[in-house]
From TrEMBL:
Residue span(s) of domain Aminotransferase class V: 3-366
Protein name: Aminotransferase class V-fold PLP-dependent enzyme
Catalytic activity: (sulfur carrier)-H + L-cysteine = (sulfur carrier)-SH + L-alanine
Coiled coil: none
Record flagged with keyword Metal-binding: yes
Superkingdom of the source species: Bacteria
Gene3D superfamilies associated with the record: Aspartate Aminotransferase, domain 1, Type I PLP-dependent aspartate aminotransferase-like (Major domain)
Cofactor: pyridoxal 5'-phosphate
PANTHER family: CYSTEINE DESULFURASE, CYSTEINE DESULFURYLASE FAMILY MEMBER
Sample GO molecular function, one term: cysteine desulfurase activity
Species in which this protein is naturally found: Metabacillus lacus
Amino acid sequence: MLYLDNSATTPLLPVVREAMLPYLLEEFGNPSSKYYSKAINATKAIEQARKNVANLLGCKPEELSFTSGSTETNNMVLKGVTDYYQTKGNHIITSKAEHPSILDTCKYLEDLGFQVTYLNVDKYGRVSLDNLKNALSDNTILVSIMWGNNELGSLNPIEEIAALCKESNVFFHTDATQVVGKIDFSLEDLPGISFLSCSAHKFHGPKGTGVTFIRRDEYGVPVPLTPLLHGGGQEGGIRSGTLAVHNIVGMGKAAELANNYLEENILKLKMLEEQLTNILNAKFGRKIVFNNDKINKVPGILNVQFRGVNNEILVKKLAPVIAVSTGSACSSSKPSHVLSSIGLPLEEIRNTIRFSLSHLITEEDLMVFKSL
Ligand code: PMP
């Protein structure tokens, strides 16, 4: 079976699994216990992982707190910043094409009395800088715009948004879950990004682990926010709970590999995307329509309409040979809000499936389409 649902999750690399195993077995210590070797080794492994993830993101290790993944990080930033700064303002700006972990958190915040602007997006799911400029007010405390869209792959103009937010003195959070390991960037060059979310399982690390990037100023002081989880004070008090050492080690190893092979992996993904596009065009011609943009996107995501074909039936039919999804795995039972935000009618949404590649796939693997 050819797995083409890598935007939902990626397979764990064998070398990542090998790196994790000792921390599930003999090195099982709780890093908070501090004084004996099993605890010290766990702490060392965590700090090494933190450095590896920081190298991949281009930030300082102390700017990262480990979490259970992007859902938690998105909740942590949105709830934490709005709670901490509620006396400064009560307005948040986001977009209609965000992940449910942003949109549902915003709905929750609206119930608490915050005002949320949901920016419209263009036909590929991108926000416009002018719309953002017009939405900013003295009351705005946070802007949260995703870097790469999980269904269409489109990249938002993050550099410009970050610069605008910095100039306007507003905190900017970006959900970078789909871009880490797939585009080349460095947080050091983007001082307007105050917070960033990412999840290890999207770049061949384990599920249930991610980081929150929280920018520190020149004096080493992090942007303050109210913690989501209170307790033992781990991660500098910002995220309590015993650290999942094995998972964090896995994320560190996956980050090291993603960083070392970044250019190579990007080239491979672009090449595979082009090949899959050609195969689909040759095989289905006018029976398909690509909803995704061809440029300025996360490499390896294709969002394709099969005219007149019900996507759930198609996905089920393909399942023994090719694993794909009808859109985001997180909300596949409902018609995609992302495709609806770009103006696609319900009928076309119900004809659409997402193919998402990984650098582990070979050109030969894609030949399976020819035999369909
Ligand atoms: N944001 C985006 C853009 C995503 O694609 C996902 C995963 N589908 C998440 C957030 C949530 O990540 P996780 O399930 O790892 O918490």
